[in-house]
Amino acid sequence: MKKTWWKEGVVYQIYPRSFKDANGDGMGDLRGIIQKLDYIKSLGVDIVWLCPVYKSPNDDNGYDISDYRNIMDEFGTMEDFDELLAGFKERNIKLVMDLVANHSSDEHRWFQESRKSKGNPYRDYYYWKPGKPEGGPPNNWQSFFNGPAWEYDEATNEYYLHLFTKKQPDLNWENPKVRQEIYDVIRYWFDKGVDGFRMDVISVISKQLAFPDSPTEDFTTLVERYYANGPRIHEFLREMNENVLRHYDIMTVGEGPGIDLENGPLYVGDGRQELDMIFHFGHMFIDNGPGGKYDPVPYSFLQFKKVFAEWDKRLSEAGGWGSIFLGNHDFSRMVSRFGDDDTYWKESAKMLSTLLFTLRGTVYVYQGDEIGMTNVAFSDISHYQDVETLNAWKAAEAAGKPMDRQLELVHMQSRDNARTPLQWDSSENAGFTTGKPWLGLNPNHTSINVAAQEDDPDSILNYYRKMVRFRKQHKDLVYGDYLDLLPDDEALFAYERKGGKHYLIILNFSASQHKVPLQNFENRELLISNYSSTDNSLSLQPWEAKVFLIN
Ligand code: ISL
Ligand code: CA
Questions:
Q1: 508: enclosing H helix or E strand
Q2: Nearest atom of ligand 1 to the alpha carbon of 328
Q3: What is the C-alpha separation between 156 and 175, in angstroms, rounded?
Q4: In angstroms, rounded to a whole number, what is the distance separating the alpha carbons of residues 274 and 252?
Q5: 142-159 pLDDT, tens digit each
Q6: Exposed, middle or buried: residue 273 (CB in 10 Å: 0-12, 13-18, 19+)?
Q7: Residue 208 in contact with residue 149, Cβ under 8 Å?
Q8: What's the CA-to-centroid distance between 390 and ligand 1, angstroms?
């Protein structure tokens, strides 16, 4: 397997709005990140992925871009950006940006022109269609954030497509000019010295041009059958690769719903000349019901393990490379979701990080997870800001759903769980801002914060630091083969990693003690555990993690 910096590097994801506010307006900004460069370096990470910082009216927190070559007013200036980039370079940290190219903002100049007239040169930068003869939108597609995926525009008496909010019109990738515009944007940032892109919803950029009505309202089916993996997706990606990507030493990671075991390898397989990595949501959509995340089904631990085993197998067969993550700005907090954020908060947060750092693939750590930040439960919907959460709320109200239950679902699923400001210290605004935070802080910042963990050798923060170093010292944890040993165990996750060296990892996903039912690992040496007092045995305390070297 070919070795590269982006396979070995650990990525730290920054959601700038919630990271650190330098000017007291309550919103994180680039100068805030500059202030924390040494903190980021102290984690030992090699790569930072920065969520969108481009000019944006912020209908979806920067995922609606109105100018791809400028910085959002709230976040600072291009001078700030250049200083930040230089700060990363000085510290030998690569910077990966977010490319949101499935859609722009409706305030982008292209869209402003496009909507003016049917004959405007920018008209076919987007998808415009007349309504159905009997009235209403061109088809029954629904947007990711509830409601129809088409918005009527009076000026020209047509509808435009928006798979996300109506302020995020979908760009028409069929138009070669649009594709060249995007490649130019990519080149612009690479020429500045940026080291790669995470590509937002890249799985849906190629549309089914017949725009068929869907016979089912089931949203998951809609995405899988009609939105994702369109007919020209791989042609577009290959063209992008030929035009720009392959001319730079950079990394790419595509993301998107509808990427599964069958089509995943097509994005990243050896010789495909498309992307380096993708984020699939196999384990992240595990509790999504047919109606999506606000229609949840119970989460299955066996299925969770199976996702890792199957993806590892598929990708290695295809000569592709995986992305390992348990949370990001779109999901609830990993310790609340997969661990126990109450009694075994510390143990389970460390155990989950042990999983992250011992799987094959590039590891992505989401800001705040390194201190075990948890979900928040605001008492009232008025405290929430996320457009997905709010639209789902309105839809539930309109459908006459029980709203107590909906609030519980918001507590469980809202993207704002991951977006509350980073907890730097125990002071009133958690050291995040001197002003009023744009989104409420998690009240537990008085106990869960960076300052409290900085010098505590037993803290989650210092465990992350240790795991980052550990992974670097044991390259077989990056590249070695992966084998799940107990796929049917309801509480234990146990696997081997094998390269030149041989490792056994055993993880307890429960609050009871267990003896791991394995033989043939007699000659073992315990290298890491998340408990301070532990032994070489195969017994595990609640939420315990052990990593052994097998001789
Ligand atoms: O967030 C999800 C579930 O809650 C996903 O379905 C998500 O909408 C999808 O993965 C796309 O996410 C990305 O594009 C969106 C943006 O809102 C997200 O923040 C971004 O990560 C539209 O640009
Ligand atoms: Ca600010």
A1: strand 502-508
A2: 21
A3: 20
A4: 9
A5: 999 989 999 999 999 999
A6: middle
A7: no
A8: 14
Nearest to 346 by CA among 461, 425, 516, 445: 461
Q: Is the pTM of this model over 0.85?
A: yes
Strands in 22-81 per DSSP E: 47-50, 54-55, 67-71
DSSP, collapsed to helix, strand or coil, labels residue 10 as strand
User: Would you put residue 430 in left (φ > 0), alpha (ψ -120 to 50) or beta?
Assistant: left
Q: In what order do the strands lie in the sheet with 545-550?
A: 481-484, 492-498, 502-508, 545-550, 524-529
pLDDT of residue 217: 77
Helix (H) or strand (E) holding 514: strand 514-515
pLDDT of res. 271: 95
Residue 164 Cβ inside 6 Å of ligand 1? The answer reads yes
Distance from the Cα of residue 307 to its chain's centroid: 17
Nearest ligand to residue 391 Cα:
1
Residue 22: phi and psi, rounded to 5, are: -95, -20
Beta-carbon contacts of 496 under 8 Å, excluding residues fewer than 6 positions away, are 481, 482, 483, 485, 502, 503, 504, 505, 550
Task: Enumerate the active-site residues.
Answer: 200, 255
Q: What pLDDT is stored for residue 533 in this prediction?
A: 84
Mutational pocket test of ligand 1: of 15, 108, 200, the residue with most ligand atoms within 8 Å of the beta carbon? 200
Report CA(464)–ligand 2 centroid distance (Å).
28
Neighbouring-strand partners of residue 12: 48, 365
**Closest ligand 1 atom, residue 100 Cα:** 23
Name the closest ligand to CA 100.
Answer: 1
Q: Which residues of the chain have pLDDT under 70?
A: none
β-pairing, 539-540 vs 47-50, is: unpaired
- The string of pLDDT tens digits covering residues 242-291 is 999 999 999 999 999 999 999 999 999 999 999 999 999 999 999 998 88
